[in-house]
Amino acid sequence: MSVSFPSRLNHTDGNSVLLFITECHIVTGSNMLRFIVFLAVLFATVLPAVAQEDVLIARGDSAQVSLDPRSAMKYYQEAEKMQPENPDVLWRISKLYTDLAAGEASDDVALRQLDHAVTYANRAIAAAPRHSMAQAALAIAYGQKTVVAPNSEKVELSRLVRMHAVKALEFERDNYVAMLVLGIWNREIAELSWVVKLALDVVYGGLPDASLEESRRLLQRAAQLSPDQIMTHVELAKTLKAMDDETAAKRHLRKALSLPKRDIGDSRRIEEARKLLREWT
Hints:
Elements: H1 14-25, H2 31-65, H3 69-82, H4 87-102, H5 107-127, H6 132-148, H7 151-171, H8 176-190, H9 194-204, H10 212-225, H11 230-242, H12 246-258, H13 266-280
């Protein structure tokens, strides 16, 4: 999955560009020193403005891999101050709020963090409606919200999870994050009892079709695209076990246990993988 960062030259104007062109043509004799000074000023003022947001994003990403969400949030929020409508900043903040909510013991605190996550993801979509990761971040936030929201809201939230994950894949067909979300969604809906599905049909008009086969297809593709993600292997293992392929399910759990932690939720997922292996042995 590729993420592009917009470049800009906020500290230049037409006169600066004209001056630069003029200086480039007069670089001999006594003008050489003047040209060197001009370039020094240009590199000191213009180029940092181009790169600074990208540097902050990169530092935030590095902090996340180092399992330091507080530092990651600080870097992303600094980048937000500089570019408040940059979707690459906004979706990262959204996902980080969702990750923090997933580790919260208090449902009330988790819901507040998820409200922030939804707000930031919607801002990212408003800034760039066809941004795949912005759509995926909103699907993730809604998905986590189904865990702690009142039962009366879960069906509508589930519809929103699917809608935004599907949009994310429409805009970027190899978005493994969206595949992961949609793979989990398919399994959870497919495993609902017929009694629950009947009630959903009567009261809420039902949910879109889902299947374990589609869950497996999506999660296998996500694992191919990003083989070093612990969560993908754990979720694929659950789907394979639900399809009575216990051998393959255990293989993916062992794969998950062999991988380094790269996400603040990975410690929790490693414990889950160990627990499932014990239960399935």
